[in-house]
Each structure stands twice: as C-alpha cells, then as structure tokens.
Amino acid sequence: MKRRCLNSVEINRKHWEAIAKRNEPQKAEYLNLIRDDHQYLEKIEPKIFPYLQKIQGKRIIVPQFGDALVLLACARRGANVTGVDLSREQIRLAKKEAKYCHVKATLIEADWQNLPESVPDNYYDLAVAECGIFIWIEHLDAWMKSTHRVLKTNGKMIVTDFHPFNLITGQERGRIVVKRSYFCQGHPINHLASDASEKNAPQSAEFLWKLSDIINAAIEAGFQINRIEEFRVKQTAEAVSLVPTDFLLVATKK
Fold first, then answer.
1. Distance CA 136, CA 247 (A)
2. Residue 3 covered by a domain
3. Is 198 domain-assigned?
4. Rounded to 5 degrees, what are φ and ψ at 188?
5. How many domains does the structure of the chain reveal?
6. Torsion angle of alpha carbons 60, 164, 135, 19, nearest 10°?
7. pLDDT tens digits in sequence order for the chain, 254 residues long
C-alpha cells in the first residue's frame, strides 16, 4: 500500500494537537488575570495594547489563536470575538477557558491559508495575531488574502511576531552565531522541539520568511502599511540581546 505524504497543514495540526496543554501553570495565572480583568493586555501584550484600547462592541477575529489568551482578553474587554485555529484540542480548551473567564467567543477549526466561506467577507473591524504566526505558514500570500478578505474597509490587521532575524541566530559567549541563512525560504524545516513541554510532540513543518516577504505579501494583498516596529523582548536566557526579537506590523484594508 502506498503511504500518503502529509502536507504542512496536516503535520502542524498533529503537532499542535499534541502540545495544546503546554505551560499549564503559567497559563492558569494568565487566565486568572483575564478573568479578574487585571489588565492582561497592558501587562502581557504591551506591543499590541495601544491598538486595543477601545474595542468594546468591535468585531475582532484572531487567526491561529493558539493559547487563546489574546482572544479571551479582547472578549473580556467587550469585543465580539471570533477565533480560528487548526487544532481541535486548542478549540476545546478555549471553549472551556471562555466559560472560566465569563466570556463568549465564536471558535472555528480551520486553516487560515484556506479559510472557509462561512467566515464572512468585509465583516471584522480588527484582525489580531501575536507571536508564533508566520513560521507555521507555507503560503504567505494566501494568509494575507484571507486576512484582507474578512476585514471591513478601513479595518486593521495588527500582528506581532518573532523577528525573522532572531529565528536564525543564537548567542555564544556574547557573540551572535548565525545558525542558517536568512535567505533560505521555500522549504520547510522539520523540527523536533527541545522544549520540555514539547518533548514527545510529533515533528512540525516550519517556514522562515524575511521581514520584507511578510511586508510585501501584505501590500500585494491590498493592505496599506501603517506602522512597522522592531523590539528586543527578553524572552529567555538564550535571547540574543544584539538583534530584535519581535516585530509589530499594523496595516489597513483600503
């Protein structure tokens, strides 16, 4: 019998199904912060908070919502929130956590690169995504076109993610070490995570994109770029202090 070859979406769905319950103790603290309305966005997501201050009654969609914390925090502030994710297990957990935080959210199991027609066109005020987004995406153009499609005219895309340069570098004895070329797009990196929470997880298919690839994909989808920022966020002891760790992209559908 011929063995079927899995595509990147199927590979990553299996990966995220396996690690959906990662970092549970820290997540429990964050859920309490959201439930008790103690400024989760201000404290934990300061890069995107300036764009999420007046969201009561706004329609917000969250691609690849993952741990669902931003989704839940926006709902707690009174937004009408929809979340999309590959993982059925992450959707199950998000439903449970929404009840815990006393909020409502519409949750859809889907690949954002191939968004179903049930997600309406020209409907949402904001599309918000944070950290750990584009490395999972094989087709940037499809991702941006889906985002553009669902936003209203003058709706905004707000994305913060790990900086592409930081993803290819490390630090040894105070010096930057480049692990792979910044220009190696096009082929997935089959990755077995070393993090303890992902020790027994199936492989993932990850994709490296230049910052210019992400910006140009947004422009080609029809977005007007409003702002790009680069940050150094101390995430772990291994974070390279001499290069940016994160970036922010804000764009408007015209």
1. 16
2. no
3. yes
4. -70, 150
5. 1
6. -90
7. 334 446 899 999 999 999 998 888 899 999 999 999 889 999 999 999 999 999 999 999 999 999 999 999 999 999 999 999 999 999 999 999 999 999 999 999 999 999 999 999 999 999 999 988 999 999 999 999 999 999 999 999 999 999 998 888 887 777 788 888 888 766 566 654 445 556 678 888 899 999 999 999 999 999 999 999 998 886 555 555 678 889 999 999 99
